[in-house]
Every structure is written in structure tokens, then in C-alpha cells.
Write a structure and sequence with these properties.
The complex is a heterodimer.
Chain A: H1 16-28, E1 32-38, E2 49-50, H2 61-74, E3 79-86, E4 93-101, E5 109-115, E6 121-127
Antiparallel strand pairs in A: 1-2, 1-3, 3-4, 5-6
Chain B: H1 13-16, H2 25-29, E1 41-49, H3 55-65, H4 82-85, E2 88-95, E3 98-108, H5 118-125, E4 135-144, H6 147-150, H7 159-167, E5 174-178, H8 187-200, E6 204-206, H9 219-237, E7 242-246, H10 252-264, E8 269-273, H11 278-290, E9 294-298, H12 303-306, E10 312-313, H13 315-325, E11 329-331, H14 343-354, E12 357-358, E13 370-371, E14 379-383, H15 391-398, E15 403-405, H16 408-411, H17 417-436, H18 441-454, H19 457-466
Helix pairs in contact in B: 8-9, 8-17, 13-14, 15-18, 17-18, 17-19, 18-19
Classes of the chains: A alpha+beta, B alpha/beta.
Chain lengths: 139, 488
């Protein structure tokens, strides 16, 4: 399967030039860019690991690309995403978030059904990868 | 004689309160010197007086009939601080280009309104006055709510920012589709459409406004099959997905029962129709707050009173009321689709729903400055006759914070529903990518779509099928301040 979280997951994987253009766009808008990684891609895993703090003072796309590249070197088989944070009052949230690295293959998710009263079902989504301990999931 | 605001009424008190009939203007409902206070509620009406009726008297009559007046003088006014409770028409001006119409600006004291009640507000502002004989037609065009009044409403239970955080979806419009055909599918077949569309790439699917609990599909059956589809699609993609389960029903008790069932099954969103009424909407908003639920509002019925320019209520006002009443999604027009929607007017509705503050913007029909006092933002929904080939226009007109709903444009795809959904998602992501790279969507949009279609046969098929389809009719609800362009 292909994990389709993030803004551009239905497009072919972005080239470094395309990633750099998106980062440029974020910086022009005054957003703080950050890099995060995980080996638990559950749709409700909000807290991916931070590859350093958001780069509030970095205004140069090349600098951000260095961080992306360092994250890829350190975690070549993890999901890695680039986030852009907008601190404008009334937003104070992400404005863009897209995946820039993914494991190969991506085993995906199973759906666990617990049959309860009145034909209702309690659903649990489980990443096959998380059967393994953290750090040993996409070898 | 002094009013609460220090302005003189036209008559002395003995003449003013003599039994009999006076002109509304003479009763104190017209005051051209009145300067609206920061805590006044303001309303702008478009009035079309009967032949021979003076526009100022007509405006005063509207102020009177929407506040304290009756047709004759009553002495019991003198038991109240009547001068402050009277609404004041303070400005009347001709409507540009419409010689028989005038704009009447009216100010209402804040004390006239119960805190946090759209039912109370609307009973005054659009109550008896809309049947008033001396007027041929009357339309409520816009309102300004003081911050003190805005703060008495809870507003959207979720709001745009929190909705995105909950769904983990940023940087692009959300995508949806309404299950079709809107009537007749069994629960099992209905859920099939939901599964295919969500797995193919949509974020949401939707019940239609008139899908409730009919002989071919009872509501519990629909909810169970739809949640199976939602969860299967979520597992297949790793994304949070949702289906707007319509809980509209005959009574509040039924609606609560359906909403609770949706919550227990793990749905992230429920849906109501505008026709349930303002009080029911506010009740469901409170319920949604208590249950961390996104509340989707379908504007069923609004066209009966919003579409005609001379009479009724502008959808701009409905948008403001629904932001106060507290819904998270509201259908607010597409500009380019099959339903009524002039570009300027639609952008005005979107601004009212999404911005923290609205400046006066006459071209978009916004006549008052409005500070939303931190009230959460409503996600507008664009639905009705739109397709992937219009993606550049949709992004240009509507921006990022919108749900684009392609019902026929997903389900009618020649390669199937999943392919239809994928076509829409690829068209959207490629357009956002290109915009962020600084490309000119208006000029290059068709080329960007054609390029994306080279890697995506479903998008190519969508463009081949619908690329030329447009709904190019002149709008009826248009700006008074600029010539009206029709969308290409």
C-alpha cells in the first residue's frame, strides 16, 4: 500500500527540487519549517518524533534541505515529513505537511473488528509494522 | 425630549403619545443624526416601497415593525425607556442601478436581544416586518454584531483549525462527495459507494439532505454500513476518513438518538439540514461540542428566501447567523458549479465564514465591518456540479479552507468510483503544488491538469469526459457595486 497522509501523497514522490520549492513557499509566508519522522504511521499517531525543533529563525530553503537530507541519512527506512507551522493568531497550527521519505515496501494496516451489541462493530486500525518494536520495523 | 442616546425625537411627548396613528418616522424610528454605538446591532435592508410610499417612512416602518412599534400609538410605551428600545433607521440611500429600491440602515439596542439565541434575533429582524403591506418587497442584506453580542454565542464546535488538526490534513482543500443516487440505495449498496470514494482518495463522503430513514434504507442500517466503509478505507490508506451521517429527523429526541449512535460507532462527523430550524441547530451544536464531533450543515431550503435579490434574506446573513449558532461546515456555493453563485457574492460568504475580521467590502456585498471576537471559523463547502477540470478555478476562487465536493464528478467517472476519487485528488494536489511553486493557475491551470493526467489515467479520463462542461448562466443574486462577470 501507499500511505497517503500529507499534502502531496497522491503525486509521484517529489524530487529534491520540488521539495525545495515547497519549503521556499513556506518560508516566504513566514512559516516555521520542521522535520519529523516515525515508524508508526497510524492515522492517529499525532506525535511523530521531532528531528530537532521547528526552525523558527531559518529563512533559507537550502538550510532546511540539509536537515531533510540528514534525517534521510539517519532514518532511511522511516516515514519522514516536512511540516510548516504558522504562528499567526487564530491559526497557530500547521499550514502544510508532506511526506518526503517512506519505507519500501509499506506493509500498511489491518482492520480489527470487535463485534459488539446490536450488530455494532468496534474498529481498530493496526499497522502491521508495529508488531515489531520501535526502531526494528522497516528493516 | 432625550433618548437613551441623547438624540431628540421629532415630536414633543404630549403630541407623540396622543391616541391615534402617526407616521413611523414621527414616532422616532427615523433619526438621521443617530450615530450607531459600538454595542448596537446593525442591519441593512433593501426596501422596495409601494408606489407613493416615501422611502424614509418605509425605512422607519421597517425599524418600527422589527422592534417596538405597532400600527398605532400606545400609551404603555411610556412605562418603558421606549426611546432607547426603538430601533432607529439612521441612513437611507438609493440602491445603485435600481431606481425603485433603497438601502435602509437600522440600529438596534443590544438590550433588545436575548444572549446567544438566533431564534430570538431572527424573530425580531425577520419577524412580522417581512409581511408589512406598505412594502412591495424587503430583503435583509447584511448585519453587524457587536463583539459583546458575538461573545454570547459558542460558535462552531470544532472550527477549521481544530478540524484540520483532528483529521491531520493540511495545506489543501478537503475533498468530498455526496452518495448518489440520493434516494433508493440499500444500506449495503450505499456503503459500497462510500468505501470506493474514500479509498480512492476523498477525505469525506456525505449523506444527501433528504436521506434520513426511508423504507429502502433505515438510518441504523446506513450508519452501520457507512462506518464499515469508513474504517476499511482508513485502513487501506492510513488516513482519517469520515462520512457525514445525516441525523436530521422529526424531533430532537430522534436526532439525539441518531447522533449518539454515530458517536458510538466512531464517526468523526454528523450532519444536519438547515430546515431543522435555528433552535435545533443550536441544540445540535451544543451536542457536537460535548461529543467532539464535527457538525456539517447542509443549507437545504435556503434558495427559497436567499436567491431573489428584491425579497428575502441574503445568504451572507445566514452565513453570519450559522457562524454564531455554531456549525463547522456549511454549503456556501461553488462559483463555477450548477447552483446559483456570483463570484463576488460567494467570496463574500466565504469571507464571513472564515475570516477573523471582515472589513467593509461593497463589491462582495459586505456593508459592515465585523469583528468576530475570536469566534472559530466555519469551513465552507462547495458542492453541486463541479469536476476535476475546474480545479484551478476552484482553488483560485475559494482558496484552501474549503471542502470541494464532487458527487457526480466522482461517482459518474467512466472507470469507476475509486478512479473518480483519485482523479479529483491528483488534480487537487497537482494544482496546490503548482500554485505553491508560484505558477499562474488562471493562465496555466489546464496545462497543469494535462501534465498531471500523463501520470494518472483516471484524471485523463475525467478531463476527457467533463473537461468542457460549464454552467455559464447569469446569477440573480449579484453585487450592486460592480458589473457582474460570469465565470468562464
Amino acid at each position: 500500500m501507499r500511505l497517503t497522509q500529507g499534502t502531496f501523497s497522491f503525486l509521484p514522490d517529489l524530487s529534491d527540487d520540488q521539495i525545495s520549492n515547497q519549503i521556499e513557499y513556506c518560508l516566504e509566508n513566514g512559516w516555521a519549517v520542521s522535520v519529523e519522522y516515525t515508524d508508526d504511521p497510524h492515522p492517529r499517531n499525532t506525535y511523530w518524533e521531532m528531528f530537532g525543533n521547528p526552525m523558527f529563525d531559518l529563512r533559507d530553503a537550502a538550510g532546511v534541505m540539509k536537515e531533510v537530507s540528514a534525517a534521510r541519512t539517519t532514518f532511511p527506512n522511516h516515514y519522514i515529513k516536512v511540516n510548516a507551522f504558522d504562528a499567526t493568531r487564530g491559526v497557530e497550527s500547521l499550514r502544510l505537511s508532506f511526506i518526503v521519505n517512506r519505507p519500501d515496501p509499506e506493509p500498511g494496516f489491518g482492520l480489527v473488528r470487535q463485534e459488539v451489541d446490536g450488530r455494532a462493530i468496534r474498529y481498530t486500525i493496526r499497522a502491521y509494522a508495529t508488531d515489531q518494536p520501535e526502531g526494528e520495523r522497516y528493516q | 425630549m432625550e433618548t437613551g442616546n441623547g438624540k431628540a425625537t421629532p415630536l414633543g411627548s404630549s403630541e407623540r403619545y396622543k391616541a391615534g396613528v402617526l407616521k413611523y418616522a414621527e414616532m422616532g424610528y427615523w433619526n438621521p443624526d443617530y450615530e450607531p454605538g459600538d454595542t448596537d446591532v446593525l442591519a441593512l435592508f433593501r426596501i422596495t416601497p409601494q408606489d407613493g410610499v416615501d422611502p424614509i417612512e418605509a425605512a422607519a416602518a421597517v425599524a418600527g415593525e422589527s422592534s417596538t412599534a405597532t400600527w398605532t400609538v400606545v400609551w404603555t410605551d411610556r412605562l418603558t425607556a421606549a426611546d432607547s428600545y426603538r430601533a432607529k433607521a439612521y441612513k437611507v440611500e438609493p440602491v445603485p442601478g435600481s431606481p425603485d429600491q433603497h438601502f435602509a440602515y437600522i440600529a438596534y439596542d443590544l438590550a433588545l436581544f436575548e444572549p446567544g439565541s438566533i431564534a430570538n434575533l431572527s424573530a425580531s429582524i425577520i419577524g412580522n416586518v417581512f409581511g408589512f403591506k406598505p412594502l412591495k418587497a424587503l430583503r435583509l442584506e447584511d448585519m453587524r454584531f457587536p463583539a459583546a453580542y458575538v461573545k454570547t454565542f459558542d460558535g462552531p464546535p470544532t472550527g477549521i483549525v481544530v478540524e484540520r488538526e483532528r483529521l491531520d490534513k493540511f495545506g489543501r482543500p478537503l475533498l468530498g462527495a455526496t452518495t448518489k443516487p440520493k434516494l433508493g440505495l440499500s444500506g449495503r449498496n450505499y456503503g459500497r459507494v462510500v468505501y470506493e470514494a474514500l479509498k480512492g482518495g476523498l477525505d469525506f463522503t456525505k449523506d444527501d439532505e433528504n436521506i434520513n430513514s426511508q423504507p429502502f434504507m433505515h438510518w441504523r442500517d446506513r450508519f452501520l454500513f457507512c462506518m464499515e466503509a469508513v474504517n476499511r478505507a482508513s485502513a487501506a490508506t492510513g488516513e482519517v476518513k469520515g462520512h457525514y451521517l445525516n441525523v436530521t429527523a422529526a424531533t430532537m429526541e430522534d436526532m439525539y438518538e441518531r447522533a449518539e449512535f454515530a458517536r458510538d460507532l466512531g464517526s468523526v462527523v454528523v450532519m444536519i439540514d438547515l430546515v431543522i430550524g435555528y433552535t435545533a441547530i443550536q441544540s445540535m451544536s451544543k451536542w457536537a461540542r460535548r461529543n467532539d464531533m464535527i457538525l456539517h450543515l447542509h443549507r437545504a431550503g435556503h434558495g427559497t428566501y436567499t436567491r431573489q435579490k428584491a425579497h428575502g434574506i441574503s445568504f451572507r446573513v445566514i452565513s453570519k447567523w450559522m457562524r454564531l449558532a455554531g456549525v463547522d461546515h456549511i454549503h456556501a456555493g461553488t462559483v463555477v458549479g450548477k447552483l446559483e453563485g456570483d463570484p463576488d457574492m460567494v467570496q463574500g460568504f466565504y469571507n464571513v465564514l472564515r475570516e477573523p475580521h471582515n472589513p467593509v467590502d461593497l463589491q462582495r456585498g459586505i456593508h459592515f465591518e465585523q469583528d468576530w471576537a475570536g469566534l472559530r471559523k466555519v469551513m465552507p463547502v462547495a458542492s453541486g456540479g463541479i469536476h476535476a477540470g475546474q480545479m484551478h478555478q476552484l482553488l483560485h476562487y475559494l482558496g484552501d479552507d474549503v471542502v470541494l465536493q464532487f458527487g457526480g464528478g466522482t461517482i459518474g467517472h467512466p472507470m469507476g468510483i475509486q478512479a473518480g476519487a483519485t482523479a479529483n485528488r491528483v488534480a487537487l494536489e497537482s494544482m496546490v503544488l503548482a500554485r505553491n511553486e508560484g505558477r499562474d493557475l488562471w493562465a496555466e491551470g489546464p496545462d497543469i491538469l494535462a501534465d498531471a493526467a500523463r501520470d494518472c489515467s483516471p484524471l485523463k479520463a475525467a478531463l476527457d469526459t467533463w473537461g468542457e462542461v460549464t454552467f455559464d448562466y447569469t446569477s440573480t443574486d449579484t453585487s450592486d457595486y460592480v458589473p457582474t462577470p460570469t465565470p468562464a
